[in-house]
Hints:
The chain is of the alpha/beta class. 39% of the residues lie in helices and 22% in strands. It has nine helices and ten strands. The chain has helices at 46-52, 61-75, 93-105, 126-130, 170-180, 195-204, 233-249, 256-273, 276-293; strands spanning 3-7, 10-14, 19-24, 83-87, 110-115, 138-143, 156-163, 181-192, 209-212, 217-223. The strands form two sheets. Strands 6-5-4-7-8-10-9 form a seven-stranded mixed β-sheet, sandwiched between helices. A three-stranded antiparallel β-sheet has the order 1-2-3, covered by helices on one side. β1 and β2 form a beta hairpin. α7 (233-249) runs parallel beside α9 (276-293). It is elongated. The model is unreliable at 226-230 (pLDDT under 50).
Amino acid sequence: MNTIDLENDTFIYxxxxxxxxxxxxxxxxxxxSRIPMHSLVGDRTVPELILLLIDNQDPFAMANLLLDILVxxxxxKTAFPVKVLEFGAAGxxxxxxxxxxxxKFQPESFLCCVSDSIGSExxxxxxxxxxxxxxxxxxxxxxxxxxxxxxxESEFDLIVINGSVNYxxxxxVIREAERLIKKDGTxxxxxxxxxxxxxxxxxxxxxxxxYPISESENIVIAKSFDKRDKPDQIEEIYSYINQIKKSVVExxxxxxxxxxxxxxxxxxxxxxxxxxDVKIQLIDLRASLIELLTY
Length: 295
């Protein structure tokens, strides 16, 4: 059985195949937050803060503990406010844990909770849990589609994909999370009873670290892509558009059917990247090529 143990002020994950130090509270130099690892004057410490959040009667207690430790390991890295996003916030339990940790570490931090359902008949219990947070950070509840939040790109330091929600298209949610995470940010995916979510998450990122909790529960974490190292597809599209336009002006031979297929491929990229200018130019170019077919 997988367990999380606290030994000599160190949180350790003990699984069937690996034993990992999750958070070493003896490593004082790693803590840049305002919450001490240890205290001689009775102040709340990092281990106490984590343990006080856990309800041992909760069937998801271990998952919540593991999530809290992983989040805390990110929060101790800075003394400055951070921005955190949660997908699938309707249940409110994970939101409560995130809000409590953020409020304690840095009250100026911002937590945005995304839910595709809201209102008295939606079984959204977010508010029921969030009102229990004594020192909340800045909070926002966003009602919208998980795969199209309309939030600003590269905006968040940490993103949690709450797998207690049944996502219709997990790949699109993961892609949206990657769009919203900052360079070198961390994405934590908690999957419960959803093999598709875990499988898609691990397939999307080249490097992940997995912590199995039970047969149906897993937490997988990944660092965001270095966006500067990703292929600049938009620049590639602009170059293609200019190349085709020049070929038309200079009356060079163009295989229009192939060009139309390429334009459709690029349109899908532009749609995914939400680049309106590229979409307009591609649509205009497609119309010009179709017109050439009629001659």
